[in-house]
Amino acid sequence: MQDWSKLYDAIVDGDDKTSAKLTKEAIEAGEDPSTLISETMVPAMAEVGRLFEIEEYFVPELLLAGRAMKAGLELLRPILAASGVEPTGRIVIGTVKGDLHDIGKNLVVSMMEGAGFEVIDLGIDVPPETFIEAVRDKKPQIVGMSALLTVTMPAIKTTIEAMVAAGVRDGVKIMVGGAPVTEEYAREVGADAFGENASVAATIAKRLCAEAKAA
Ligand code: B1M
Q: Which residue CA neighbors atom 85 of ligand 1 most closely?
């Protein structure tokens, strides 16, 4: 892979125009989208998080960095999706209630699409009722929930409990993820799987889907 540190810098600096321009150049240079994301773009967002933690960055910088990351991801998404062949299965996914972070979730969506899944993306700040409605309407094999804040992580539990109460839990596999979420937490709240990152999530989704279809 070529040196794409300027793309890294563009994301850290929150420069969406340069991020898009350099991502385009990387595509034209034939870079593998997954490698570009995992080795350049995701580390840039981790650096943004570090700068926020040490109070060099504040919310406006987070917003700008998020926008710069998205500008690049939007260009890579169709390429990731095009690598899929047969529809592998259907996934309903969303960021849980109270949580506005969607960059990681969008990455998961792209990787799932790349793995051949039909993805119904419910967006951010998704209340339990919307997940339940989507399960009833779309009949997915998998429901994915993302949470990025320790204070919104409990919404995963609440959503699963609401799904149980509504009688829609048993027909689907549930995968959860996001920075504060752990394997242990996933087990504790009754999810079927924890996805540590987007590419692992796509691999696990294939297994879950096969299990759901076999059941
Ligand atoms: Co916020 N934020 N943020 N933020 N933000 C974090 C998460 C934080 C860790 C920053 C920090 O303090 N270091 C911190 C949370 C602390 C905590 O709870 N422990 C934090 C905070 C505090 C906040 C606010 C409260 C700030 C404030 O207002 N004072 C506020 C909350 C708003 C809300 O949600 N209600 C807030 C707001 C924002 C912005 C809106 C400004 C912006 C989001 C823009 C957007 O998403 N459109 C933002 C950003 C950008 C971040 C950081 C810097 C980057 C997040 C990100 O995109 N990471 C973040 C710091 C950090 O994470 N280092 C931070 C890159 C992304 C690729 O990784 O999302 O982890 P991630 O996704 C990974 C995996 O987790 C996994 O796969 C992805 C790809 O590999 N994954 C799944 C994710 N979902 C999955 C689902 C799966 C499977 C895998 O299955 C379904």
A: 177
